[in-house]
Amino acid sequence: MSARVLSQIWAIAFILLGIVAFGLRYQARHEVREGLQDSLWRLSYDIQFEVDSPAAEIRVGLPDQSSSAAIIEVEEKTHINLNAEEYTSPLNKNRELILTTQLTGNYQVGAEFEIRLKPRKSWDEQNEVADLSSTAKSRFLRSDSTIDTAGANVREVMQQIPRGDLTDSELVQQLFDFCSLSFKPGKSEEGFDAVGYALANHQATPLGRARSMVTLCRAYRIPARLVAGFEVRQSKSATPHVWVEAYYGHHWVPFDPTYGHARQMPYNYLPIRRDGEEIVRGEGIKDLIAKYTILRLPPPANVLQAEVRRPSQVLDLTRLPVEMHEVMSLMLLLPLGALITAIFRNIIGLRTLGTFAPALLAMSFIYAELATGIVILVAVLTAGYFGRIMLDRLHLLMVPRSSIVLTMIILLIVFGVSLIDYADPLSGVRAVLLPLVILTTLIERYFVTTEEDGMAFAMQLVVGTAVVAACCYLILGWNEIGDLLLIYPELHFFTIAAFIWIGRYSGYRLVELWRFRDMVK
Amino acid sequence: MDNNSQRFWAWPDELKRRGILGINQRNLDIILECNPRGFYPRVDNKLLTKEICQANGIQVPETYFIIKEHSECHRFLDLVGDRTEFVVKPSSGAAGRGIVVVAGRLGNNFFTSSGRLIEWTDLRHHLSTIISGLYSLGGQADSVIVERRIVSHPLLKSIAVEGTPDIRVILYRGVPVMAMIRLPTKMSGGRANLHQGAIAAAIELNTGRTYGGVCRDRAISFHPDTSFPIAGIELPNWKDVLEGSMKLSDALEMGYVGIDFVVDADTGPVVLEANARPGLAIQLAHREGILPRLKFVDSIPVSDRTGENRWNVIESIATKSSDFWRV
């Protein structure tokens, strides 16, 4: 098999390896994050009633999948004499369990739901467009015993809030403000569930507020409905909560006049029944007692045991102590520096002093701070340059000569840092560990190149080195890249694939297009 | 054709059509394929190259002595004796690095061919620098070769401003495919180094006559210092150069190699060094890409391009019109 084909196979293998490794880790991290952010709850129903009519029918509202809640597990315990049937109403999309029986007597029904609440809602889910037919519209404008749109108190409010040129949205906001702010809390036993009573006395229960808002909306010919559900929180005896949805602009828009939430409900609002105010309702029964429990469940075991030692953690670099992160991500950036170097050398064709020197130089600038780094670099290069000129006359052997330059550079740095600190103790200057040995070799190489290939060529190399170093600095200095590589070091499989491709690139280098330009006349 | 090009670059497919070999393709498709890594020391180490040349009856500059250790440096003056002309070069230097040509001497003061004074201490320092490996590939410890200074053939001397012109022949699978002569200029400081501004002219393989020309990657037709035309010079001992190059290429067992000659006034062509990674400027000197010539050699059956049959191949390469080489 030719090297070219083999290289392609290897490169593709590395790409695939990268995709698989990245995918697995992304998936695992996603699961853990979900486990930490989402919450698990158990909602239990305990319903007791007595059937006293042979045509009894009990409708139990069930929680539904929604944008913020996922129903994980459902367990229903019904009585042996009850026929159970699940039903979803087409208009309101309510899920119900319809229980029927011909046998009178006492019954007990239970149901349990495991619910995962997600704090995030996706935008399109919460803005689901709903289209109302004229029959549906008339249904959501209807007046009945609890929602009497023709009551005297309603007309009074309508005089206070004239429709005028208000948009639907503005009007609903005013009605919401009215129901939310102008009522004092009232008690159910004193009759403050009723709209007329609430409007007359400016006092209302939560149900009274919601009913009032729906009544007023409908009075203004804006379709509206009650929503019964739960505010999910730890509770041994949870009470259902009622809020409002008004229809305008092709959307059902939620409002909670009791707690003041508008347009977007908290993610822990779990709607059960739309256009209704009870969770359970029935015909032909009496003594209905419905108890609800909401219990917070622990997150999945893998989330709680994240810190348990296991060999696979070796692959997770973020687990290392924080102070190691900087060095680790810097090390992980090095291959990218090498990649940039390879691109410059083999594709662009820019020549530098030393192969990896520019990338290493850039890395040290990233690790240090740019201003200090540049000051020290300039000082080091100047000292190194003049030191080298002076030493040239001593005719020393190469290694000792370079070592003297290195020692001089180090002394200059230590005292330079000390000087900066003396001048401005608050400058927070920190010794920069530039790759000193590399700098020393760079200086040496510059001299040899100047002697052997001329000043012009040496300057070309210097400029090339500066360009590559600057490029590396700009790209690798991007914090997010280092962080990303620390989380997903397997991204370097792609880097290796890129190296293979560059390594097999036999096309012209960019500078050759310039170099050979005289050949195409 | 001279320095008045309006173009700032050429498109890749234009270069491809002209058969230009780029550095990446040279490294990947030619050098990696043709030159076994294990044979590199044969060209990288000049001592070894010299030995191979001598074993095959190819002329090289006479070696006076070799210095391998720092401790031997002090014996240099004894070893040189009363010679006034010699060349000091690193055994593993690349691109002519570290070579000092001593052309005159006053006691322990030496003078280079361009008249620069080198005191004994300077020279001694230079020797230890070479041994330290400053000029060697990869910085390995090196040895110093002290050899006879080649006196350029009078005809070549007349066209060189200063320094010694050298001839490079590039052989592909043992067949000379391109050749050029490199002429030092004032800009190059008397060295035949194209980086430093030396000029190069292409050589017709069958006649040894120069044509084309390049200086600092630009096409030129006249010597920048003397304004003499660089085309039309007939090189002396041309057949000997080709013969020597083919012999050495066979001995080196490398499929793609550049061999550098100088033509000595007395002994004729001698090999200076061989190079397993010859540069690409030779194409500029020819104003023609090398790739079609390599393909042409590949297209000839092996039996027709080995031994003495190579002269026919050289003849047909040289006599093909330039249109033949366009892809």
UniProtKB/TrEMBL annotation, chain A:
Pfam families reported in the protein's UniProt record: 7TM_transglut (PF14402), Transglut_core (PF01841)
Origin superkingdom: Bacteria
Keyword Membrane in annotation: yes
Entry-linked Gene3D superfamilies: 3.10.620.30
SUPFAM superfamilies, per database record: Cysteine proteinases (SSF54001)
InterPro entries: 7TM_transglut, Papain-like_cys_pep_sf, Transglutaminase-like
Regions that span the bilayer: 6-24, 327-348, 360-386, 398-420, 426-443, 455-476, 491-511
Residue ranges of domain Transglutaminase-like in the record: 198-259
Alphabetically ordered keywords of this record: Membrane, Transmembrane, Transmembrane helix
Name of the protein in question: Transglutaminase-like superfamily protein
Species whose genome carries this gene: Bythopirellula polymerisocia
UniProtKB/TrEMBL annotation, chain B:
Sequence ranges assigned to domain ATP-grasp in this UniProt record: 50-301
InterPro entries to which the protein is assigned, alphabetical: ATP-grasp, RimK-rel_E_lig, RimK-rel_E_lig_ATP-grasp
Pfam families noted in UniProt: ATPgrasp_ST
Domain of life: Bacteria
Molecular-function annotations in GO: ATP binding; metal ion binding; ribosomal S6-glutamic acid ligase activity
Keywords of the record: ATP-binding, Ligase, Nucleotide-binding, Ribonucleoprotein, Ribosomal protein
GO cellular component terms, A-Z: cytoplasm; ribosome
GO BP annotation list: SOS response
PROSITE patterns found in the cross-reference section: ATP_GRASP (PS50975)
Protein name: Ribosomal protein S6--L-glutamate ligase
